[in-house]
Task: structure prediction
Amino acid sequence: MTGFESGVKRSDWADFDCRVEESTSRFLDLVDSHNVKATFFVLGWIAERFPSLVRRIYNSGHEIGSHTYWHRLIYQQTPEEFRADLRRSKNVLEQVIGGAVSSFRAPSFSITPANTWAFEILVEEGFEVDSSLFPTSFHDRYGFSDSPLGMHQISTPSGLIKEFPMTVCRRGLWNVPVSGGGYFRLFPLAATINLLKRVNAEGRPFVFYLHPWELDPQQPRVKLGSRLTRFRHYVNLHSTESKLDLLLANFRFGRISDVVGEQEITTTIQHDSQLATPCVAGR
Result:
């Protein structure tokens, strides 16, 4: 979505054919067939327009988290703009499901070393778990290479928030992304399974994500963005569903809040405006 935003105004979103109900239903049917409960990070904009879909997700036992209202990159906003968007999203989601929303993921993992002020706002707005940091330098739009690879707590002047960073596997000098999305569609399935098993062997749970549109190979092709952007978006959409079906059979999955709650988190990090520094050493 972020890769195409320069060519599509948010005010025009409603003018496009929205395929989110069909693709999300396909995703729900697949995870339900494996008896898997997941966390769905939902845009407030989507929840306002498709409340029955969001209630179906929630009533099926899945967790609803916030993905902001407008899917704007956080580092392109002021703290005041981010707070207003975050609050609007949380309010909409909680009204739709009739329950609390306490988990968050930034659009395009857009919490970076330059905008760690976002964590204090998340704490102040009632969020307990974040899953936005991506410990890699492979991508042009995101990356927090100094982040610990495992779960940790982030200390802010307003309190603590638990962080479940996107999963990478350390190979030589590189943190290889293996969290899902375009990486999952690009890598052979055997490579993904092998890397995720290595992560588990290190004693770390992993985060795995997909967007509903990644299960929609018939979606319209738009001629927007760069060649790289279009490649990232459309590569191997035809095989995503079958690969996900096999992946779900190879590992045990759960809702992010549940997995975080099962872990003893022994590392706390305190960020300044630019740099991550250890605050409490893990035992």
Q: What stands out?
A: The longest strand covers residues 152-156.
